[in-house]
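Office hours follow-up: a student asked to see two folded examples consecutively, so here they are.
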Amino acid sequence: CTFLALGTHFGKVFLLDIQGNVTQRFEISSVKINQISLDESGEHVGICSEDGKVQVFGLYTREGFHENFDCPIKVVALHPQFTKSNYKQFVTGGNKLLLYEKNWLNRWKTSVLHEGEGSITNVQWRANLIAWANNVGVKIYDISTKQRITNVLRDNVSLRPDMYPCSLCWKDNTTLIVGWGTSIKICVVKERNPTEMRDLPSRYVEIVSAFETEFFISGLAPLADQLVALYFVKENPDHMDEEFCARPRLDIIQPLPESCEEISSDALTVRNFKDNECRDYRLVHSEGESLFYIISPKDIVVAKERDQDDHIDWLLAKKKYEEALMAAEISFKNIKRHDVQKIGMSYINHLVEKGDYDSAARKCQKVLGKNMELWENEVYRFKTIGQLKAISQYLPRGDLRLRPAIYEMILHEFLRTDYEGFATLIREWPGELYNNNAIVQAVTDHLKRDPTNSTLLTTLAELYTYDQRYDRALEIYLRLRHKDVYQLIHKHNLFSSIEDKIVLLMDFDREKAVDMLLDNEDKISTDRVVEELADRPELLHVYLHKLFKRDHHKGQKYHERQIGLYAEDSTHCPLEKVQFFTFLNPNTHPNFLKVNQCLFSYLRALQMIMEELEDVDKAIEFAKEQDDGELWEDLISYSIDKPPFITGLLNNIGTHVDPILLIHRIKEGMEIPNLRDSLVKILQDYNLQILLREGCKKILVADSLSLLQKMHRTQMRGVRVDGGSTFREHFAKRRGPGSGILEMKK
C-alpha cells in the first residue's frame, strides 16, 4: 500500500497513510532527520540524521544496519531492489559519497565513490545509476561498470547551495531531471558507440533540454512527458524596498529544448509560508499513482491529477450543470464520487429555480429514465408550481408508463385551460394510458356548456373511435363535415351505418362520396343509393353519371331517367353528353327522340364545345375520336376567324388533316399568336412523316428484293429425274441456253 515516510527536526520518523494517519513511529535521533530513502517494494528504509547516524532496516523484518559517523550525514539512498539478496547496497553522503555493499560473508564492505568537492546535498538511485549533487555540480555513477559517466556543472554559482539545494529526480532508468536555482536540465544517459570508447566510459550523458524559470526550484517530478515543478517565490512590489516570500507555486510545465511552456499553475497556501526558505520545501511523487506530496515545515499538501470527479465538482461549483451532466455520462464507468442521475436532478432543480420549466421538463426524459417513482414525484412537483403543461409532452408513454391517474390529472388540467392542447394529447397519447370512459364523461360535461365547440366534438369522436363506438364517432364527423369521415368508414367497415346518411356524405364531398359508393357496390347496392338520392336529382345525376363512366351497362335500368337528367344538366361537358347518347339505342329508349335529337348530333356537340366551352383542345380531341372529314371541315371553318383556335389547329391537326387546307384559308394580315412556332412544328411533323415514309419504302424494297432472290434461287435449283435415253433425247431436242452443258456431260 502507499505510505509516506516523514522525518522531523526532532529526530523522529513517522509513517503516514495517504489520509495522513500515523501508522508507525520511530525514534532515530535527537536532532534533525536529513533524508529518508525507501526501496521500490517499500519494505526497507534508510535514514540519516544531522548527528551522523545512519540506519537501514526492514519495516517488516529484524535485519538492519546501524552506523554512527563523526560528521553530519546529509543523504542516503537504497538500491531500488534492496529487498533482493543480490542487491544489498546503499550509499550515504556527507563530505564524501560512500557505497555500502554486503559481501558473501554477510559483512558490509565500504567504497568511496567521490570526495573532495564539498558536502553531498542530494542523491537519487535508479536501476544501476546513482546521481548525486555537491557544491560543484551533479555526477552520475554507473554501478554496473563502476564508472563515473558525467559531471553536470552548476550554473548559478552565486546562490548558496545550502539555501538553494539541488533537486534531482529520475524520470525513467536513463533520464535524470536536474533543478538548481532557477535552471532546469533534462539529461539522458546514452550508450557510447564501441568505436569511440577507447578509454572513455561506456555511457555518456546528453542534455536534451535546458532552460531558465522565473522562480527558484524547490522540487521536481515527472508527469508523463511534462514536469511538475515546486517553486519558491520571492516578490518585490514596486512600493517596497525588500523582497518577501510569497506562497509557493506548483506548476505543470512542458519542457522544450531551450525553454518551457506553462500548462497550469497553482499557488499553495501553507502555514507560515512567509517565514520559509527554498530549502524548507520538498516535492515527492509516488510513481504509478500520480500522487505528489508537497512537504513544508508545518504542512503536507497532497496533489494529484484531476480526474473526472474533480472536473465535475468544478463544473457544479460554477453551475455548469449541462457540461457536468455530459461529462458524467461520458465517464460514468470511471467516476467514483458522483452519480449521473443525481447530477441530472441537480440540473433539473436549477432549471426550475430559474423558471425555465420547459428545459427542466425536457431533461426529465433523459435524467429520470425508467425510474417511475422519480417521474411521479416530478409530475406532482410540476403540478404544485402550476406547470403540468410543460412536463406533459415528455411523460413516458411506451412499455414503461406511470399510473393512469397521473395522465388523467394532466388531461383534466388541459381540458380546464386549453382545448387545443387537450386535443393534441388525445391524438398523441395511446388510449391505454388513461381511463377512456372517465375522459369521455369529462368532455361530455364540457360540451353541455359549449355544445358547438368543434375541437371538443372532434376529440370526443376520437375517444369514441378508440372505445370502438364508431356509430357515435361517425355522427360527430358527419355533423362537423370532418375530412376523416371517409377514412373512418373504410377503416372500420361502417357501410351499413351510412345507408341512411348518403345525402349527408354527398353534401359534404360529392366526389369522395360517389367514389366510395361505387368502390363498395357489394356493401351498398346501386338500387339503395338511387332510392336515397331520389329527392335530390342533382346528386342522383352525379352518381349515375359516374356509374355510366365506369361501366356503360351497369345502370341500364336508370338510363331512361338519365336522359331527362342530362337534358336538364348544364354542368357536364357536351362531349360526355354525346358519349352517353351515342351509347343509347333510340329503339329501346323512346324518350331519346324527344330530347332534341339535333342537339346531340356530332356537329351540334362540336359547336357546343367551341361556343360554350371555347376549348379548342377538347374540340380537336372530339374530332380525332370521330375521325370524320366533314367534322374536321366544320372545325376549320369555325376556327378560321379566331387566331387562338388557328394556333391550336396548327399545332395538332398535322397528323389527321393536310395543314395546307388550313393555311390557304387564313386571311392575309391576320395576327396569329405563336405562328412561327406552329409552322416550325408543322414542318418538323412533315419531315418526320417523310422520314417514316422513306424508311417504310426502304424496308419494303429490301423485303421485295429478298423475296425475289429467294424465288430465283428456288427456281434455279436442280431437280433430280430418273429415266433412260428417252429423257436424254427429249432434252437434246429441246435445246436452249444450257444445251452446251448437256452435250459436255454426254
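And the second, which I mentioned at the end of office hours:
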Amino acid sequence: MVIASLNMIISHLRKAVWIARLCVCTIFAIVYIAIFVLSLLGLEAVIDYFRNITKRDERRHQFQELVATILYIIPPTISHSPFFITSIATLLRQFDESNETLLYIISRSLDASLICSAITPVLLSLSTLVALPPYRNVMLQIFRRTWKQTVGKLQLTSIAYMKNLCVSCNFTERFLRSNHEPSLNRSLQNRVYPL
C-alpha cells in the first residue's frame, strides 16, 4: 500500500516537473526569439538610419542612441544562444525521451551554457562601456587625462629647456659686458630675457 502510494506520488511529481520544464523552456524560447528578432530589426533600423542621415540632421542624436542600444543588446543575446538550443532540445526531448541525439545536444549545449554564463558579465561590462554614452565619455576622459599628462611632461621639459636657453643668453650677455665693448653693451642693455 505504501509502495503504491509512493509510486503515485512520484508519478505526479514527474508529471509536475515535466509540465514545469515544458512551461519554462517554452517561455524562454519565446522570449529569446522575441529579443533576437527585435535585435535584428534594430540592426536593420540602424543601417537604414545610417544610409539616410546627414551630418547636420536632427536625427543624428536618435541614431546614436539607437546604435548604443543595439551595441548593448546584441552581445548578451548572442551569449544566451546555447540556452536557447538547450530549451528547444529539452522541449523536443519531452515528446521523445528515447532520442540519444537530443540528449547529446542537450549535454553539449549545457556545457556551452556554463561557459557563456561565465562570459556574460564580462560581455555586459564591455558593452556598457562601449555602448552607453555616459560610460563611454568617462572612459575617453580617463584616456585623455593620461595623454594630457604625458603632453604636460613634454611641455614642462620644453619650458625647462627655454629657461636654460635664457640663462645661457644671460651668461653670454654678462660675458660680452665684461669685455667692455661699448657698442654691444648698449644694444644688450635694451634686451630683456625672462628667467
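Two things to take away from it. The CA atoms of residues 52 and 59 lie 10 Å apart. Residues 132-195 form one domain.
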